[in-house]
Amino acid sequence: MSSISAATVTVPATTANLGPGFDCIGAALSIYNEFKFTRVDANKTAENQPILQIYVKGLEADRVSTDSTNLVYQAFLKFYHHIQQTPPSLSIEINLGVPLARGLGSSATAIVAGLVGANALAGAPLTQTQIMQLAISMEGHPDNVVPALLGGCRLAACDTSNPQNWQICEISWHSDIVPVVAIPNFELSTSEARRVLPTEYSRADSIFNISHLGLLIRALETGTPDWLRVALQDKIHQPYRQALIPGYETVSRAAVEAGAYGMTISGAGPTLLALSPHTQANAVKQAMTEAWKQCDITPDVHILQLDGAGATLSA
Q: At 31, is the secondary structure helix, strand, or coil?
């Protein structure tokens, strides 16, 4: 493929962990960020650096950096460094639909878009698998960037003989499992959410999560209500992070009473994810909204779909 002058990359939000699947499982959701990359016909700066123009609109646009520290551009530069080529002068237009620092993979959308956009402008020298490996190395773990790139629900496991060799397994998602996300009007940084986690776990807790992750995979495939209810339980991260999310127990109880199979923390939080049958999705949405309002928190609640496409490119 020859190089092109412009490319638009659309990347879905993601929800990671899904209860017991800490740092290894994630799913793409139907909220999107859009990134347009355009070569700029311009001389380099006085410091002999490529010209960079970044324009941002949409949710919380004023909080996104528009200089070379921008994460999208950092991923773009990483790609060109990897292929040992000089990056071109560039204009990036970003349209934000995924909220920042809420546990819905906003950073993963930036990393994936920067790499996919750079690959397109460079003439597609890397395969999708090579792009995925670069994305994982930037993010530090695969649970968000993999479904953001590939779509669907994905389980990632590394090879002990080669930790850079990730095996990616698509997990079937039953058509009657509807994701309902409740996004609160406060943030929770990933670093803070990781700080509260123990450095060691008991054998009993490890076995608990292994068994529940196995059950989760089958529950997502079959849509079996009793399996889903139990499978979302976890002893690795959620018991420690719940205290960082005001109203967690209230919202969880309301979601289940309204008919949800269960509720879990999306990524590092504070967004909460309920899995619901189609017939109860509206009731679950309303219940989660009212429950958080009782705690003086205003949420933005959405009934979503599993995104099956992942990052899409139009040139």
A: strand
